[in-house]
Structures are given as C-alpha cells and as structure tokens.
Design goal:
CATH superfamily of the largest domain in chain A: Type I PLP-dependent aspartate aminotransferase-like (Major domain)
Strand content of chain A: 15-25%
Largest interface: A-B, 105 and 104 residues
Distance between the termini of chain A: 45 Å
Radius of gyration of chain A: 21 Å
Low-confidence stretches of chain A: 1-6
Number of strands of chain A: 16
Order of helices and strands of chain A: HHEHHHEHEEEEEEHEEEHHHEEHEEEH
Oligomer: homodimer
Structural class of chain A: alpha/beta
Mean pLDDT of chain A: 94
CATH architecture of the largest domain in chain A: 3-Layer(aba) Sandwich
Helix content of chain A: 25-40%
Chain lengths: 422, 422
C-alpha cells in the first residue's frame, strides 16, 4: 500500500544504537521464530530453561493457592508494587540470604528488576559511560568468554574492557578457563568489575579462591564487583562443583527467577548496598513505574520457607547435572574422530565447544547449522570488550542442553555431520 | 557499621539523570509506602486502578483455565516470548482491532512492552534526543496539563516542548481544556506529537475533531502522532463522552492492560508501523531479552473472543462513571463555600481540581495533605516541557477516585478542611 505521506522516520542516536543487529537480538529472534515455527527446530541456541515437571508442578500449586486468597491475588496482579519491587518478597529473600548464605542483608539491600537483563542495563549504565565530571567509566570483564547480553547494553560508547583467560587443558578433550591474575590489573577508568558465575556461555564456575581474589582486587581499586548469579547460588543453584555463595559489602550480586523455570515472569534480583538499591528503584520508577508482581508474589512463600533453596539442591541441580553428562556423551558420539575440545561443564546448562583451527569461523558454522534446522550460538558474540584479535574467538559454539533430549541429541548429531562436511 | 573500604560510588551522567527526584518517583514512592503502611492512608495520588470484583473474578477464571492446560501454563511462565511479545496475543489483538475499530493492522503492527511507561521510554528515546546527523529531536505536547510520567523519560536533555491549553468555562464550577489550534504550529525540530486520551491527569477526552486535526497536523509536519490510550479506546474504555478510537497509518497508539485492573503484570501495547514495531522489539531484546508473558497469555482468549471490549463497555466504563459522579458530589460537599473549579470528568479516574489564586501553591498543599494522611498529586508536575511560567500550573491537584469510596470521601473532606485552614 503506497504511503500518502512521507513521514520522517528518523531515529535518534539512542534509537539507532538499540536497533542495531546484536548478538542478543539474533538470539531472541531465533528463539521467537523457533517457538512459532511449524517445522521442528533443534533449539540449542537460547537461554530458555528446561521444563522440569517437578518445578512446573510446584509453580502451579503456588498459583492455585494464591488464586484462592483474595488479598494475595490482588497483590499479584491488581496493584503496582513499590519501585524497588514487592515488599513481602524482598523481606523474605533477605531472611533467606541471611540464613542460607550468612549475608548481612535486609530488604534495603534488595531491589527487583524486570528480569536480570534489565537489571544489567540499569547497573552498567548507572556506573559506566560518560560522567558529569567529564570522565568516562568502563566495566572490566576479567574473564572472557562472557555473557553475550552484556555487549550492547551501554547507552553511550563502548563501556567494556575485557581480558583473555588462561586455558587449562584437562583430560578427555576437556579444558577450563581461569582468570589470568598474572596480567590482571584494574585500569583507572574502571567503574566496576563484572563476572558471571557460573559463566554464561562456558559453564565454568570460578573457584572460591578466584572470586575472593576478584573481590579483593575490586575493593583495592575502590569499585564494586558485580557477580552475575543468574544460574548460580543460592538459587537456582545450577552448579556442579564445590562453590560458596560470595558477597561482601561492596559486591553487587544479581540473581533471577528465570532459570528456576520462570523466564515468563521477568523477575531479576539485585543484592547491593542501599545506595545502589535506591538508585535502581529510582530508575525503575522513572522509566517503568514498577516491575511486575507475579513472580515475587508467586515465589514469596517458597522463599520464606527456604523451599526455593531446597528444590534448587534436590531437583534443579541434579536435573541439569544429568543432562550435562548425557549431552557430553552425545557430543562424544557425534564428534567422534573430529578434533574438538569442550569446556568442563561445571554449571549453567551449556556446552562450550572449542574447535581449534575451524576453517570457516563460528559465525558461518552457526549459519550453516541454522539452515539445517539446528540453532546454536556462535562463540564470537561472547567476547564483549575484548579489543585484541584472537583466533579462539571464532572457534567456539555455545550449545544449550536444556531443551528436549531428542532435540539436543539431534542437534549434536547435526553439528557432527556439519563438521565432517568441512 | 563503618565501611572498611572507600569504594567509589560515582554514577554516570545516565545514572545521575535517572536517580533525580522526579514527579514519577514521588508518586511511586508514595504508592509503595502507602501499600506497606500500618496506618490508613487516603490514597488519592497514584494511578492504581480500582479492584472491580467482576474483573478480578474474570481474571481468576482465566488463570484457572490456564493452570489446567499444561501447554498454556508453560507458555505463560516457562518460556521467553518473542522480543515483540507473545505471538498469540498479538495475533488475537490485531483481529480485535480490525473488527472493533476497523484498523488495518496485523501482528506486525503490534509490539508489547513491560508496561505502558516502558513503552514511552522506548518510543520517546527512539525519536527524540540527539541524532547522529547532529540534529536534536523533540516531542511536542500540544496540550498541557499532560501525564507526569513523560517528564523525565529523555535519556539526554529536555526532550519536550509543550503548549498551554485554551480553557472553556462550564456551568456548575466545571471547565474543559481544549487544544489551542489558533496558536499551534509544529516547530522544525519536532520528531513526534503526543497526547493522552483520556488525558491523564485531567480526565479530559479530546474530541474526535481535535484528534483528527492533530493527526492532520502531524502528517503535514511529516512526523508521527503518539496517542496514549492507557485509559482509553477500545479498552479499558474509561471514556464517558462520545469518542471514536483513532488511528491512521502514521499514528502510534499506546494501550495497556493496567487500567483493566492488571498493573501487576506490566503489559503495555504499541500499535504502529512495522518499522516502529521492529525497532521497539529490538530495544526490548537488547535491554531486557523479552517482556513478560503472564499478561498476554492470561488475556489472549478474552481478546480473541472480543470479551475484553465488551467488559470494558459493560463493566469498567459504568463503574468509573459512577465513581466519578460520586466523587464530584463529595467534592461539592467538602469544598462547599470555597472558590474552586473542576475539569469536567470525561474519562480516566481523576478529578483535576483547579484552585484559582491558591495562596500556598499546589506543591505545599500536597505536603500538608500528605502530613495529614491524604495523598494526592500536585498539579505542577503535569506540565512537562512547558517553558513559560503560568500561575495555573501551581493551582491544581490531581485526585484519583479509583480507590475505596471511604478513602475517596475522607480524602476529599481532608482537602476541604485543609483549604479552609488557609
């Protein structure tokens, strides 16, 4: 239909910045299209958690209880929450974190966000970018590969600076990344450090020692350490190695309800100093009035009773650990005879496949797999802020093993077939 | 507890901008505190919708149906939605808008946001602010008073320019604002026009003629007209005067599930050209992965069947119209003998009280009322972008009549008592 009027559709700089094709968009577009597709797709790309029957039954039971309680139901859907998030949930969570982790926190240390990603948008832009004193703050990622979703969050300019990891070779085609403390310093313009634990995309779990040293480094530099625990401790607890939940007064811990199995409720959690909590609440009030109450009200009793930590330990962790072993076996079968390495799966729900010397680059491999109905993520997205070139960046794939086992198995077989075609 | 380390807590310019005290923060902080308060508060400040029993029963029935359907339940909470929002809801809504309003729209014209306010954050910053060509776009508000929540949404600089209204005096201490077309032009730097209909805060409903003229003005200037229908047509339909839903191809219509009674699910809706839909979806993917699915999945069948429009007409509109008449009567009783005017309540759920010659200013009146347990909003917040000074700005209050009738009555009595104290 011809347009009668030539309406200016000129976007602002902000508009241009946030409508570029990004790794996150690619990921979410793939996910949306796959969910709507008629043909079966092996969906090994996104971060969608598994549908664990016990967890879905638990959520359903809680929903039913809330539907029977008029006041709770109203609180869940019919009222705007406090800008910092539903107060009852925050109080219950503070108690849980005191009891389960020994953290000295109250509700004033907790602010909810519209999902973890929104929390990072707020946090990164709170600290990084141009300052009114003329300076410019950056976020230091001490270890890449690191989460693709960070990459494009900066409202203005490139807000990240990042470091390569040290690589430890392990038996059985495995390897593990470590923070390379030998070369790690905190430049003067760094406003915060940030790591995910478990690491998305690699399934690496930084050791207690590594985290302690990062905390000390941040304190020494006088900046906060942001710890992304979306897959981590104390919930959903998708961690297969011994690891202790970490927080000191200057650490900002980010948690989420998504990987418990509730990505649709969009509830992220930030545990931080009251000044940071207040700042994030103010940002929420101004830019979106309030965050949703469904997730917080739904989970409040499970948090208050500690059940959320128990099911993380007794249901969620074992579930993904089993899936991880299974995926590793299928990977070994599918890639038999091909030269590959895989990061030791210590948590989250991804295999991080390293294909040394891959002739076509991981982005092209992603496209070829997509054309054949298998969605993964190209590893090159996962180096936000790493300035130097490094062949390793183009030799890796992130493969989710959270979806239906048949899809995971078929997807891994497709990867093996594609590699043998090269 | 003394801090061991002097951690830099320096915020970026973005951080400073979004942590200022704003009208929206004041409103949301008041709301949060009132909901948590032990003492009763007459909550006439916020935009929280009423708890209409028929609507709550309807939502509950839908929830129960979804809980009994495994696939639907998963879709509601356990999967990330498409960046543009849950696809089934968007398809159903497109059909409704075609059938009920005659708009030529498909799912490609609809994008969901994390509440209406988030949609405006995205929309305003998409069009307004610094452009990469060195220009700067602004949003023209052709009629103030206009929604307080717009005020602080601009990421950089003052993005609004606004106009005073023409005032029509009506019998019975009433008045009505009109767009002052005699003086309205669209400056070259304007990137979009925006009006709310019904107007928040005044309850004004711009006439079909006024909206048609604004649409023509926008097209003539080659920019989109953003129409904020959070309280409007076709749902929740809180409109007491004859008014037709308006959209042409260049109009961006914003709707919401909040004023149906579902603010806790944070679902905003933007109906626009596919380019705008795609841009907003991209912003969502990058900054928050996806919006929540609870609201869209919950309401999908009610949208598909047209029930959402029917209950708007048969339940919601009559409910608020009754509440509006009741509030007007109580206002007349409470302010009897005092010199006041009130905007004719034509929609939404606010009384806009004008106190010509108010000696203390509306901000001080707000503080005094708050100290006595009655929360309203000072009218001075509702003139975003109006450069000129104008005594009228400091002579008005926004009073919600959506809360419990006892609170509304007591609050109006408190206002009368306070005014007589002056």
């Amino acid at each position: 239909m011809p347009r009668r009027y030539d309406v200016r559709m000129r976007f602002s700089r902000f508009g241009e910045r946030f409508t570029r094709q990004t790794g996150t968009r690619e990921l979410m577009d793939d996910l949306g299209r796959a969910l709507a597709a008629d043909e079966p797709v092996n969906l090994l790309g996104g971060g969608n958690p598994a549908h664990i029957p016990e967890m879905l039954a638990l959520f359903r039971r809680e929903f039913r209880r809330l539907l029977d309680d008029e006041r709770e139901f109203r609180r869940m859907v019919a009222d705007y929450a406090d800008p910092a998030g539903e107060q009852g949930f925050r109080a219950a969570l503070a108690r849980l974190l005191r009891d389960a982790c020994g953290w000295t926190v109250g509700p004033e240390n907790i602010v909810l966000t519209a999902g973890s990603q929104s929390g990072f948008f707020q946090l990164f832009n709170l600290f990084a970018g141009p300052r009114s004193d003329g300076g410019y703050g950056r976020i230091l990622l001490p270890l890449t590969p690191e989460y693709v979703g960070y990459q494009d969050l900066g409202v203005e300019g490139e807000i990240f600076t990042a470091r390569r990891p040290a690589i430890e070779r392990l038996p059985g085609r495995q390897f593990k990344y470590h923070v390379d403390f030998a070369t790690l310093t905190v430049p003067q313009d760094v406003a915060a450090l940030c790591v995910s634990r478990p690491t998305n995309p690699t399934g690496n779990v930084l050791t207690d020692e590594e985290i302690g040293r990062l905390g000390a480094l941040a304190r020494g530099a006088g900046v906060p350490l942001i710890l992304d625990g979306a897959y981590g401790l104390p919930f959903p607890g998708i961690v297969f190695t011994p690891a202790t939940p970490y927080r000191d007064e200057e650490t900002i811990v980010c948690l989420s309800l998504s990987k418990l199995g509730l990505p649709g409720v969009r509830t992220g959690i930030v545990v931080a100093r009251p000044e940071v909590v207040e700042a994030l609440g103010a940002m929420t009030a101004t830019t979106s009035l309030a965050v949703g109450s469904v997730g917080p009200v739904l989970m409040r009793e499970l948090v208050a009773s500690g059940a959320i930590a128990q099911v993380s330990e007794s249901v969620i962790r074992p579930y993904y650990e089993r899936r991880s072993r299974q995926a590793l076996e299928w990977l070994a079968d599918s890639l038999d005879g091909y030269e590959y390495c895989v990061h030791r799966p210590e948590g989250a729900f991804f295999l991080w496949l390293w294909l040394p010397g891959l002739p076509i680059g991981s982005a092209e491999l992603y496209r070829r797999l997509k054309a054949r109905g298998t969605l993964v993520l190209s590893g090159h997205h996962f180096f936000p802020g790493l300035e130097e070139d490094w062949p390793h960046r183009h030799e890796c794939l992130r493969i989710s093993y959270a979806q239906h086992p048949d899809a995971v198995r078929a997807g891994l077989a497709a990867i093996g077939a594609e590699l043998r075609r090269l």
